[in-house]
Amino acid sequence: MHYEGNIIRPPSEAGSILLQVTVGCSRNKCTFCGAYKGERFRIKKDPVIMEDIAFAAAHCQRQRRVFLCDGDALIIPQKKLLHILQQIKRQLPWVTRVGAYANCKSLKMKTLDDLETLKAHGLGILYMGLETGDDITLKKINKGATSKEMIQMGQKAKAAGIKLSITVLLGIAGPSRSDIHARETGRVLTAIDPEYVGALTLMLIPGTPMYRDFKNGEFFLPEPEDMLKELKTMIDATELSKGLFHANHASNYLPIKARLPKDKQKTLRLIDEALTGRVALKPEFLRAL
Q1: Nearest by Cα to 133 from 188, 193, 197
Q2: Which of 25, 67, 157, 191 has CA atoms 20 to 30 A from the CA of 145?
Q3: Please, what's the b/e burial string for 194-217 (b: 16 or more CB within 10 A of its CB; e: otherwise)?
């Protein structure tokens, strides 16, 4: 496989064939993210991608899923992306699902018909970073989209029959907008109604604008207890028809895996127990990205 730079994939794609079709991220401007800093975004050439698919056909016959790396594979022009999916289906017929990262920009560039065609050729899930539903915070972290646009693009992916996994960030709004961030994020998640929600806890990365703001006293991280209160408010404000809300990433203080709406009240009680000290939080030294 021809891997370049940082290879980032969702935790749920740990057992997947990692096919790198782009290098870096098409936006790469979010203030909190240091994953692709200094990496110029580009789409890889067809011969390299086809060689990697052939390698997977020969050596990856036990894996049933493919994840298209890196930061935003959906940005690839429709004709080229469709060709990649067709070759995966032809050369890796045992693969049951292809996944990729997406953002508002890439989803805007695809029509509903485009997305339905990609779905028909194996694209089964998209991973989208919402981070927050609070428009003021979205602008401050330079996400490049409003909450209205996030809802519209998420709903378009869902309308095409593609499963959606949305990431949100606890602590991203700081202490002053924590409650607003939690409630507005719940509002947006409810409107999109994704199959999966993954809540991560913000960890500051040296070299990022947000880290510099933190060092300069212009941004403050909420305390662990306040992060938990934020999570509780967010879950309480989120109504999913049959979605899985999980906060079991290595960055989180309290591992949570809840099927909503069935597990909502039980999960809220678990957070209350953690807030009163009856359930232990993850020690700081065990947290990681």
Answers
A1: 188
A2: 67
A3: bbbbbbbbbbbeeebbbbebbeee
The dihedral region occupied by 131, where left means phi > 0, alpha psi between -120 and 50, and beta the remainder, is: left
For 232, phi then psi, to 5°, come to -60, -45
Please give the pLDDT value at position 288: 65
Phi and psi at residue 241, in whole multiples of 5°? -75, -40
What is the DSSP-derived secondary structure letter of residue 72?
T
Give me the amino acid identity at 128. M
- Tell me yes or no: is domain 11-286 CATH 3.20.20.70: yes
Residue identified by tokens 């935790």 is: 11
pLDDT score at 255: 84
pLDDT at 123: 98
pLDDT (tens digit per residue) in 231-249: 999 999 999 999 999 987 6
Structure tokens at 235: 């879950």
pTM over 0.85: yes
